[in-house]
TrEMBL record:
Keywords for this protein: Heme, Iron, Metal-binding, Oxidoreductase, Signal
Comp. bias (Basic and acidic residues): 238-247
Residue stretches making up the Cytochrome c domain: 169-273, 441-644
Chain segments carrying region Disordered: 238-258, 274-299
Family annotation (PANTHER family): BLL6722 PROTEIN (PTHR30600:SF10), CYTOCHROME C PEROXIDASE-RELATED (PTHR30600)
Entry keyword annotation includes Manganese: no
Compositional bias annotation for Polar residues: 279-297
InterPro entries: Cyt_c-like_dom, Cyt_c-like_dom_sf, Cytochrome_c_Peroxidase/MauG
Name used for this protein in its record: Cytochrome C oxidase Cbb3
UniProt organism field: Methylobacterium brachiatum
Length: 653
């Protein structure tokens, strides 16, 4: 489809949003770029035939195992084995760009992403105005005034969304649009956060983090930001109910709730503080967003910044993919765990989430005849599972399970349980960034500095990580996120999952596969979750694709713009719409004098303090204080920016 025709389609969607067309029937669409529209179309070759609960099995080993009964059992679905082939990878790519697992219902009908400051019409018009040129940061005019703290965003003001539209395209990468008999919904896919448009070419980089995605501000502009209060520091949710019956529920059935306006206002301030390119995925009632990681995931286990996604298929990568939709894109599923996670009963929790729902049928009305859970059941598109998304439910739900936060696996009807998440893992493990520009002599010198400075002590192996988790006190970064899983220890079940050939919807008696976890692995997992008497920790990240992942550290705090004299920290870069410069930001990672300035800039910002962005920690220096000259520091940075594939070719996925 040519871009001029795509523009017309986009304009048509604006008309749909206004309710003028497609009033009957159903329609959905999410873009998936052609290989010709990618800046990194090349992938690692498929060398892993099976994944068995995180163990890679080569084609040769698979042939040997299939020659014996015991080997065939090891490679069976009942043992948790996942077969990897081109069809599996292609399904993973399709799911990466187009699978929402039903989150459009929560995002649209509960949170009201289309009913706040931004509307489908304004978004479609913003895309149409690009004229096919594409953008890394779609500017959308507000449809109405929205107050966030002391700031009022005015009608017509252009908002930097960080949404990406490729050159020649007319749709936003990672957004899936649904029209259901005139009711428009918006869902998100993994590509929203883990694919990015290259500003130079307008092409898509598969696996690169969307480093300016303004997810927090987009949530703050929604009609019902309170639906995400559990991901933010909102003490107002614990406040005594207001006196008015419409807030207390005292005239009818239902819980006594805190003041709606206070909770909504506080939630908007907290989520709006997230730096662009970050997201708060921990429902611990603490504002602690982390940088969106890349999906250059081969040999990068464990996954997530704390390393808590570490066991099960693909060494935890499938767990990470699953929890994005099983724990983060539908907060209604947390109601059963609210007593031990949030200290509130399930009805109070759901009352706060649903009280401001954008769609009337989803809205809980204090003083009415239905409780919040009854309202949810009346509109739930997936009545066989908790929450609104499409879930396969372990018998241990809602207990924490180190393979899944809550015993839920997002799944697609008609294919095996968790299949799309496993397929995305197989796809992601083949991705690597575009080839880096390099000067071979400088890069070789930089590698020598890397080893001399001791970086290889932690950053070793094919992806330059030793796969270890470092205690928060030792690594020295802001510790809040490391403790985010501590409360989940109150309800903990043995790690398990469904056999990988289990159909969805589930049969009456599905096969459950236990996931072994003992010894050092258990100790590392407990550290990652902040459990077992630990204070939590952060993983040693892999270094493939650093040129695409600035800013650095889990809190996005190590950020420096093209001008290192004035563009320091999140306040001097992301908050001003300035992309962090990878070279300057890496210098601040290893140079203590520049880092001190970055940390000072972050500490001077009220917004950064709300989001707990400091840029502190990882005090491993390669600077004048350790005898590294500026020339050698330059070479080290050149080497780090040159890492565009696994360093050991024989270890490719």
């Amino acid at each position: 489809m040519g871009w001029s025709r795509r523009i017309l389609v986009t304009a048509g969607l604006a008309t749909v949003a206004a309710g003028a067309t497609l009033g009957l029937g159903r329609f959905s669409y999410a873009p998936m770029p052609d290989r010709a529209d990618l800046l990194n179309p090349d992938r690692y070759p498929i060398q892993t035939a099976f994944d068995v609960l995180g163990r890679r099995v080569s084609r040769g080993e698979a042939d040997r195992l299939n020659a014996t009964e015991a080997g065939r059992k090891e490679l069976s679905a009942a043992s948790g084995a996942v077969a990897i082939d081109p069809a599996m990878v292609e399904r993973g790519r399709q799911a990466f760009y187009q699978e929402t697992f039903g989150n459009e219902v929560f995002l649209t009908d509960v949170m009201g992403m289309l009913d706040g400051g931004l509307t489908p019409t304004q978004v479609a018009l913003a895309v149409a105005k690009l004229g096919g040129q594409g953008t890394t940061n779609l500017q959308v005019a507000l449809a109405r005034d929205v107050r966030i703290g002391e700031r009022t965003y005015r009608t017509g003001e252009l908002v930097p969304t960080g949404l990406d539209v490729p050159k020649g395209g007319a749709f936003i990468i990672g957004i899936k649009t649904f029209s259901d008999r005139g009711h428009l919904r918006m869902g998100i896919t993994c590509a929203l956060c883990h694919a990015a448009v290259d500003p130079g070419t307008g092409k898509v980089v598969e696996g690169a983090p969307n480093t300016d995605l303004n997810a927090g501000l987009l949530m703050a502009l929604a009609k019902n930001s309170s639906a995400y209060f559990m991901h933010a520091s909102v003490p107002e949710a614990d406040a005594k109910p207001a006196a008015e019956p419409e807030h207390t529920g005292s005239t009818g059935t239902g819980p006594a709730l805190p003041d709606a306006e206070a909770v909504e206002a506080a939630t908007k301030v907290q989520v709006a503080s997230w730096p662009p390119g970050s997201f708060d995925s921990s429902a611990d009632r603490v504002t602690n967003p982390t940088s969106i990681p890349s999906s250059f995931s081969a040999h990068g286990e464990p996954y997530s910044w704390s390393g808590r996604e570490a066991v099960g298929p693909f060494a935890g990568l499938s767990s990470l993919n699953n929890n994005v939709h099983a724990a983060n894109s539908d907060t209604t599923q947390l109601a059963a765990a609210a007593p031990w996670l949030f200290g509130m009963d399930a009805e109070t929790y759901l009352g706060i989430v649903l009280r401001g729902a954008a769609t009337e049928s989803f809205r809980y009305r204090p003083g009415g005849t239905w409780t919040p859970s009854e309202v949810l059941r009346s509109v739930d598109p997936t009545p066989a599972a908790p929450g609104l998304n499409s879930y396969a439910v372990l018998p241990t739900y809602p207990a924490t399970n180190y393979v899944t936060d809550n015993g839920l696996f997002t799944s697609v009807p008609g294919e095996p349980v968790n299949h799309a998440n496993n397929a995305m893992s197989a796809f992601q493990n083949l991705l690597h960034p575009p080839a880096a520009k390099r000067h071979s002599a400088t890069v070789q010198a930089g590698r020598a500095v890397f080893e001399k400075a001791g970086c290889g002590g932690c950053h070793s192996g094919p992806a330059l990580t030793n796969h270890r988790i470092i205690p928060a006190a030792e690594i020295g970064t802001e510790p809040t996120r490391a403790r985010a899983g501590a409360k989940m220890e109150a309800r903990l079940s043995a790690p398990s999952l469904f056999a990988t050939d289990t159909p969805f919807p589930l049969p009456a008696d599905p096969v459950i596969v236990p996931v072994p976890l003992a010894g050092d692995t258990l100790a590392q997992v407990q550290l990652a979750w902040g459990q077992g008497g630990t204070d939590g920790g952060y993983k040693v990240p892999n270094l493939v694709g650093l040129a695409w992942t600035a800013p650095y550290l889990h809190d996005s705090g190590v950020a420096v713009g093209p001008d290192p004299a004035t563009q320091l920290g999140v306040p001097g870069t992301l908050a001003r719409g300035i992309a962090p410069d990878p070279s300057n930001s890496l210098r601040s990672l290893v140079d203590r004098d520049l880092r001190a300035k970055v940390v000072a800039a972050n500490k001077a910002s009220d917004t950064a303090r709300i989001a707990r962005v400091t840029g502190e920690g990882h005090a491993y220096w390669a600077d004048a204080g350790t005898g590294v000259s500026r020339r050698d520091q330059d070479a080290l940075i050149a080497y780090l920016l040159s890492i565009d594939t696994l360093t050991e070719p024989a270890a490719t996925p």
